[in-house]
Amino acid sequence: MSVSQKASDREENGRRKRAAARLKAGVQHPELLLAAKAALAVGIAWSIAPYLPGVANDYPYYAPLGALVSMAPTLMGSVKNGLQTVAGLAIGVLLAGTVILLSEPNVFTISLVVGIGFLISGSRRITTAREFVPVTALFVLIVGGPNADSYSIGYLVQVCLGISVGLAVNLLILPPLRQDAAAAELSRFRTTLARHLREISEALTESWPPEHEVWATRGDMLSRTASEVRAAVMHADESRKGNPRALIHRRDLLAAYDDVAALETVSFHVRNLTDVLAGAVWGDPLPVEVPAELRPSLGAAIRSVARILDEWDSGTGVLAPPRDEAEAGLKSLRAELERQRHSGAETISAASAIDMDLRRILVALRPSVERDAEDIPTPAP
Prior knowledge:
Blueprint: H1 3-28, H2 30-48, H3 62-70, H4 75-102, H5 107-121, H6 132-144, H7 148-172, H8 179-205, H9 219-240, H10 253-282, H11 295-314, H12 320-339, H13 345-372
Helix pairs in contact: 1-8, 1-11, 2-3, 2-7, 3-7, 4-5, 4-6, 4-7, 5-6, 6-7, 8-9, 8-10, 8-11, 9-10, 10-13, 11-12, 11-13, 12-13
C-alpha cells in the first residue's frame, strides 16, 4: 500500500470516528434525557407524597418541588443541589422561627427577614439553591402563619422526600457520564486549530494580499472554544464522581486535562501568529513585513504543524512522521531566515516571530503527541 493510500485511510478512519462520536452524542440527547428523568421524578414524588404521615400529609405539593430542584446534569450536581436546598430551607425556617419567637410577623419583620435571607443566600457556600433562604422564610411567616411550626415540618419533610426521589431517579436511570462529550469537544478543538492553520498556510501561497480573510477574524472564536472545551472536561470529571457507570466506562481524564492545557497553549500561539500575518497583510493590529521569499517556507511550516493536529485527532497513533515533517519544516524555515538575515532585522522580525510561535506549538504538543504515538523513537544517547 502506498504512503498516500495509507494517509487517505487514516484520514477516512478519523472521519468515521468523529462521525460516530457525533452520532452517539446526538442519539443520547443529554438534555432530553434529563428532562425525561425530571418529569419521572416529579411524577413519582407527587404519587408518594400523600402517603406521608402526620403534618407532612397536608403539604404534598412540595414533594414535586424537591424532585425538580434536585435534578442536575451530573449525579454529583444532583447531590449538591439537594444538600444546598435542604440547607437553604433550614436557614429560612430558622430565620422565620426567630421572628415568631421574638415578635409578631408584620411588614417590618417580614421585610427584615427577607433582607437578611438575601444576604445569607449571597454566601459562596450556597450557590445552587440560594433563593430558598428568603423564599422559605417568607412562606413560613405568610403561608404558615399561626401554624408555622407544623408548616415548617411538613415543608421540610416533603421537599426532602422529593429530593430523595430525584437522586434515586438520577442514580438508577442512566446516571449521566460525559466522558464521550469531552472527547468530542477535544476533537473539535484539534480540528478547528488544524483547519485554521491550513487556511493561514493557503493564504501565504495565494496572490498577495490574500483573497480569503476569514482566518484573521477567528481570535475570539478560538478563545471561546478553549473555554468550552475546558468546561466540557471539567463537567466530564464531575460526572464520574459517585457514578457507578464510571467503573465500567473508564477513561483517563488526567490525560484529557493535559490535552486541554496543550491545546490552550497552541491556541494562544496560533492567535499570535494570526495577528502577525494580519498585520503583514492589512497593517492591523500591527503593521509588519513578511517578504515574498519567506512566504513559501512559512506556509509549508504552518501546514506541517496542522498535519500533526490532524493525525493526532485521527486516533491512529501514527504521529512520528508528521512530527518529523514539522521539525524538518521548521528547520528549513530557520535556514531561510538565516539566508534573509542580510535584509535587516525589520524585514525578518515578523517571520521570526511566527517561527518562534510554531516552535512553541511543537513544544506544547510534544508530551501529548508522544503519549499517543505508536512508534516513539528511542532518544539518542
